[in-house]
Design brief:
six-stranded mixed barrel; 6 strands; globular
Length: 144
């Protein structure tokens, strides 16, 4: 009984909000390759629902939720696991990701569960083939 109370005290002291509250992120890049001239930050593996894992060339990972965790922190913490991210959500959104060619720029917005590889996708933007348009000043400064 005493160990249970100590455990609960530690959870309250450390804050359980990180465990229950997902982090909203925007993963930007190319699925299965990239066009010449694209600046790639890191290559990761993504699994779209139950499909086979595929390479994803990350251009940017933006954390949209308030907090101390950065995109670099998220990538570093998921580096040892394969696939690095598992995408789940509405079938239409997942089909938009699946159908992207290697030269189509993707912006995938979703909720990442704390200390998990699962991203619940809630929006997908696909650009026409080629390099994405230059980011606006607001996007460069604020990330959205």
């Amino acid at each position: 009984m005493g160990s249970v109370l100590i455990g609960l005290g530690l959870l309250v002291g450390l804050g359980v909000s990180g465990i229950s509250n997902p982090t909203e992120v925007r993963l930007e890049g190319f699925l299965g390759g990239h066009p010449p001239g694209a600046r790639i930050w890191q290559r990761v593996q993504v699994q779209i629902h139950e499909d086979k894992p595929r390479d994803f060339e990350v251009v940017n990972l933006i954390v949209l939720s308030p907090g101390r965790e950065s995109g670099a922190d998220i990538l570093a913490s998921r580096r040892p696991t394969r696939p690095n991210f598992i995408l789940a959500g509405d079938q239409k959104l997942l089909d938009r990701i699946r159908g992207a060619g290697p030269d189509e720029f993707l912006r995938i917005r979703g909720n990442l569960l704390h200390a998990s590889r699962w991203i619940l996708v809630n929006a997908v933007e696909r650009s026409p083939p080629g390099l994405p348009a230059a980011p606006t000043l607001r996007e460069r400064l604020l990330g959205f």
